[in-house]
Amino acid sequence: MSKQALSHKLSVAPMLDWTDRHCRYFYRLMSKQTVLYTEMVTTGAIIFGKGDYLGYNEEEHPVVLQLGGSDSEAMAKCAKIAEKQGYDEININVGCPSDRVQNGRFGACLMAEPALVAQCVDAMKQVVDIPITVKSRIGIDDHDSYEFLHTFIDVVKEAGCQHFIVHARKAWLSGLSPKQNREIPPLDYERVYQVKRDFNHLDISINGGIKTFEEANQHLEHIDGVMIGREIYQNPYLLAQADQQIYGSNNEVLTRQEIIDEMALYIDKHVNAGGKMWHVARHMLGLCNGLAGAKQFRRFLSENSSLPDANGDLLKRAFDKVVQLQK
């Protein structure tokens, strides 16, 4: 019996080098209901890598593994491992446009091979009970008609995928860097809305260029879920209002001081286990954006978090620079 899909009204996008387990722990302090995604992890890293690519904190749930690959056997093997690890869902990356991803035959280039994506979904669903979802673009290169996107979703849904997250930009697979691919191709939200109208029985989430919860709620009038990436990374305290503004819950809103105190304890635990403070602090640089002293907070953390004796107390000292300017 398949497990019920998560409520994806709001999620934080998988962001390479950013949404690691320390980042996700930090985000979970601020929102209990927002769905969190790992960075993309490739099948090769999971099967052959020596690192702990699937490690996470229990507090992170609900947490989704984003998986990169196109070999259905390897995808199924990794799905089984991820389910055993306790992940709530697995998402297939069909949206990343980087050269490295294309050379590995996964990411956005897979939009041109919907039957292969469907084969991966089917193979994974055969061996796990947790939901399998797909994150794509609206098109690639010159394949950017609505018909192209419609066909992709039509084929993949037949394998049992019930939730598609669509980045509302097409991807240029050559000529643009991954960063440019997040900014230059124009956004076309209406095309994602059309997907929902045509596939009303599917869960459709939208991604790309969304900066406020007011915008998110406008999108939610047309589709099922909103995914926000860079805006939350750059202004993480936005998440403190997520449960109230998106989910309508009355969960407690933590103050920045409460978050600092909790993260100081987390940093000490990480450092005592042999880690570096900077591994955690780098995700927190934007916590005070909008407040007097935010620049001093960022600078103090950037200059001191890599020192050998850096610990949670240093985080509190950085925040004191902000507190003093609020008086």
Automatic annotation (TrEMBL):
Q: Which InterPro entries match?
A: Aldolase_TIM, DUS-like_FMN-bd, DUS_fam, DusA, tRNA_hU_synthase_CS
Q: Where is this site: Interacts with tRNA?
A: 93, 179, 182, 298
What's the cofactor?
Answer: FMN
Which chain regions cross the lipid bilayer?
none
The positions annotated for binding FMN are 14-16, 66, 135, 167, 207-209, 229-230
Catalytic residues in the record? 96
Give the catalytic activity.
Answer: 5,6-dihydrouridine(20) in tRNA + NAD(+) = uridine(20) in tRNA + NADH + H(+); 5,6-dihydrouridine(20a) in tRNA + NADP(+) = uridine(20a) in tRNA + NADPH + H(+); 5,6-dihydrouridine(20) in tRNA + NADP(+) = uridine(20) in tRNA + NADPH + H(+); 5,6-dihydrouridine(20a) in tRNA + NAD(+) = uridine(20a) in tRNA + NADH + H(+)
Q: What class of enzyme is it?
A: oxidoreductase
Q: Where is the DUS-like FMN-binding domain?
A: 12-314
State its Enzyme Commission number(s).
1.3.1.91
Q: Pfam families per the record?
A: Dus (PF01207)
Q: What are the protein's UniProt keywords?
A: Flavoprotein, FMN, NADP, Oxidoreductase, RNA-binding, tRNA processing, tRNA-binding
NCBIfam families, sorted: PRK11815.1, yjbN
Regarding protein family, the annotation reads: Belongs to the Dus family. DusA subfamily.
State what this protein does. Answer: Catalyzes the synthesis of 5,6-dihydrouridine (D), a modified base found in the D-loop of most tRNAs, via the reduction of the C5-C6 double bond in target uridines. Specifically modifies U20 and U20a in tRNAs.
Name the record gives this protein: tRNA-dihydrouridine(20/20a) synthase
User: What species is this protein from?
Assistant: Thalassotalea eurytherma
